[in-house]
Amino acid sequence: MGTENAPGGKASPDPQDVRPSVFHSIKLFVLCHSVLQLAQLMISGYLKSSISTVEKRFGLSSQTSGLLASFNEVGNTALIVFVSYFGSRVHRPRLIGCGAILVSLAGLLMTLPHFISEPYRYDSTSPENTPQDFEASLCLPTASAPAPAPTNGNCSSSTEAQHLGLVGIMFVAQTLLGVGGVPIQPFGISYIDDFAHNSNSPLYLGILFAVTMMGPGLAFGLGSLMLRLYVDINRMPEGGISLTIKDPRWVGAWWLGFLIAAGTVALAAIPYFFFPKEMPKEKHELQFRRKVLAVTDSPARKGKDSPTEQRPGESTKKQDGPVQIAPNLTVIQFIKVFPKVLLQNLRHPTFLLVVLSQVCLSSMAAGMATFLPKFLERQFFITASYANLLIGCLSFPSIIMGIVVGGVLVKRLHLGPVGCSVLCLLGMLLCLFFSLPLFFIGCPSHQIAGITHQPGAQPGLELFPGCMEACSCQSDGFNPVCDPSARVEYITPCHAGCSSRVVQDALDKSQVFYTNCSCVAGDNSVLAGSCDSTCSHLVVPFLLLVSLGSALACLTHTPSFLLILRGVKKEDKTLAVGIQFMFLRILAWMPSPVIHGSAIDTTCVHWALSCGHRAVCRYYNNDLLRNRFIGLQFFYKIGSMICFALVLAVLRQQTKEARTKESRSIPGLEQQLLVSEPGKKSEDSRV
Fold it and tell me: Which residues form the domain of 82?
């Protein structure tokens, strides 16, 4: 390649021979890696934006969908520890490219259930050869109507096996999505740090993280667009559909977002197969950085609050993890050494408490990211598309702002370990304060005839009123209608006793009414669709408070990371960070979606049945849903605050003991002044 002889002092060959390839530029690698990590987080976060849609399409409970979301971390956790072992021994760009291709294939695999399953039938009670929403949902006399089929009448062993196969494909795809993402971030960061100029490396990594943080926001924006399209847009039934996006039976094109994101990842993976295993180290500091440093006097950058600065020649060993400790370890030796180093780090109280606090915060974030769209959709009766749009525009920008402000505060205030713990504790206290009003902002549940009862009503009544006993209603039907005068909702027109259907064409859309309803007073007519909510406007102040609380919680990101770096020995720092992320995945990102999903399921008041088994929840008790979802978030926030308070107590105790020890060992004030700086360094290293 002509670059290896350049530093050796030999005469330079012909300029055409020494001209480096365009892929020998670390700046190009930073650009490519920013795009790749953006696309990877977009495809990883897209499922969370369409979680309620996937539940409706495949009849999943929130517990099952939470387990599906957490399987992204299973494959990642199983292999992430060995990334530190391999370090720079492998061709990192090619391995990153292979991982990205696997992520792209996993995204395509996620769409497979859509193409191999039957078209979505939003009214399962209507025969396949008749228009949906027509006579099957009406109240017909028992003598002239076919006998209602049992709930599991259309079920067979092959049908159940097909359903399990579709769900199993998505679980496999999520696992492969996690496996493919294993080498992308660690190898990319170490590659940048190895070959960037020592002064430019922090700037490159800052740009990388800033661009990457936009990935989840783009995922929710993509979900907002895709869920406006009907799920079977590629195979629309003849004559179209009568659903609108506000209908609770609406299912958006969840699979289309995976196709787009998978294609983006595949395109972003191509350049990595052209980057070399090693490239010449960047020789010059960026002009931009040099000018900034000239304007802002930065003696503190060389101090203890800048963990990313290092001496020349040090960066190539920084990211090798256990290789830094023992460069010639074999895989077997690495497996034997790892538990010893793990226990050694866990004996540090600061490290253990900070990791536990981050586990609580990550559990809160995992549950919020997975089920916040569904929570907003059910609590405030808004569409899934609108919920995703609000989250993408409000929540994720506030999270980025919180992380940036936390880093700026640490830098400007020159915070040490005690100052970092105070900032973390203050951030969590404010987060708890602004989270309290969330318990009281929400919409009450709709009054559902035969399912929810007014206060004072006698429990144990029959499932549906007696006014529709003459009708032959399907027990598993779902075609909600609303009596606007009484604000009562019926799960089908049949359960309202309606015997006819009228369509009124307007200028922009048609309105469907059901008439001659024996269970409805007044004009005996109901409106198709669920009842409108009078408090849907509260979703904006609710989400503003959630975003503010998220920003305050994210203030702890940078200071808590610095506490971990200063809470372990210098030679254990890299592996300590790896252990930290391993614990976050095992204790937070894997179980938290399942825990939140189970809590949501306990608030369901009416389940849809599939082959005799509970499928998706049709109606929730909104007060219970709000109290349990927000209460679970509040529990994790309190746990994090307690851990940060203990960290502050431990650090103050250690500082007090260090000062007492110094005062006993130094007899005079003059000697104390002479050795004050070494004593400070000893205290810092101990912390």
Answer: 22-120+160-283
